Amino acid sequence: MANYDIVIVGASTTGCWFAEKMASNGFRVLVLEKELPENVSRAYDIFHMSEPEMNRFDLPIPDEDSPLREFSFNGSPMCSPYGTYRKKAGKSKIIGLHKHDYIMFMADRAKEKGTEFVYGAPFVDLIFNDKGAVVGAKYETKEGIKEVYSKLVADCSGIPSVARRKLPDTSYVENFKLDPVAILYVILYYFEYADKSINPRELDSFFMQYKSWAAPAGEGYDGLFGIGGCFSYEYAEEVYNTQFMKNVTFPEHTVKKVEKGMTPYHRSVYSFVEDGFIVMGDAAFLTKPTCGEGCTSSLVQGEIAVDVITKLLNKGEALTRKNMWSINKRYMVAQGKEFDSMRPLLMGLIKMNSDEAEYLFANDVIFSDKILGGMDDGLNLTTADIIDMVKGIIKGVVKKKISTVSIASLLKGLRQSDAVTKLYDAYPESVSGYLEWKEKADALWDEIGTLADTCDPEIMKKLGIQ
Hints:
The chain is α+β, with helices and mostly antiparallel strands. About 35% of the residues lie in helices and about 25% in strands. The strands form 4 sheets. Strands 1, 2, 8, 9, 10, 11, 17 and 18 form an 8-stranded mixed β-sheet that branches. A 5-stranded antiparallel β-sheet has the order 13-14-15-12-16. Strand 13 (about 205) and strand 14 form a beta hairpin. Helix 6 packs antiparallel against helix 10 (about 405-425), helix 9 packs antiparallel against helix 10 (about 405-425) and helix 10 packs antiparallel against helix 11. The radius of gyration is 22 Å and the shape is globular.
């Protein structure tokens, strides 16, 4: 039986980053990873992180000739459904990295600070004391089940959330399993263009209506096209074949490679902490609503957690739900409200048909350079922005360019977005106000629904999705 300050379940981005930071602060850290080193984060090769975020979170940016790095580019414009209009949707420099290689590089950095890793060690269960607090974890080895004890167990296991789901129903950290309606199934197509004079960088773009994007690919491919959909990979593929390729003029190409992966698309869990436990990253659904990316967006919470937990351990105080509660409050105000308030508005926009969305792009209503250009830092709508949106939408209805059904959906999204912001601003300062707040949050999210509510009924019918 071994004892550690912190046991982390999962050795991907969040797990390795948290391990390095806590080990650097002088604590004994163990990371449990179900995969062998050569198989960690192999679902897809290339992933993107913005240069400002990498700098903020002390993630080294490899040199241009480093084998960890494939390319860089400056943001991607957001395109209208027919590809006619392109609006600035991001200004940050984006670094394209080889995911497996970079995560193993992060693991090496954590090891240099004293972190211990056990690979090929699937998590089995949490260990509780007689008061119900988490005091360790059980994991599987070739020799059988082993136990390890710690002051804190951190679940960084991604969508499976293997440790979070072992918490009792009485826990303030929700223990539900993420189902297919709240998962974005992502397919990456690596292209070779028939016309070799095409500059792939000129095709960089994001198509919100199709939950898709075109980006650099590296490794000798001309370009990469990604598309995501709820329910299944089959749904995403059907949108690609029957909607995107029909509506958008895209250069003639050959698909040379296909990769598939998943990202959560769900509001964050309401509470991250329990006695002796914290959930982080994708396991807590901390992903950007605009694209589903979670590698660096989850580190806003990680940064707060490192600060709070380090101070508690240095003072010799227990890592209880009560003592760690400020992690919840600080995250909800710092980023949670920005991310989750985007969801209802984005859902309202996606429900519009292509002609309606094209009209909004053409007239700078919602899809304007001003609003989309600031989405790197959250939606951050002012009262004046909202008034201008409403005026533009009403004008579209008068001109019969937008249906009354769509305007109702958009206005509902705006109202719900504002309601989420106000609710999260009122997140309780202490544990005592949580249950009352949670009741209000549940009611609001029941009203908002999920991204799956925006899916095409004809495609769902074709695929037999109920």
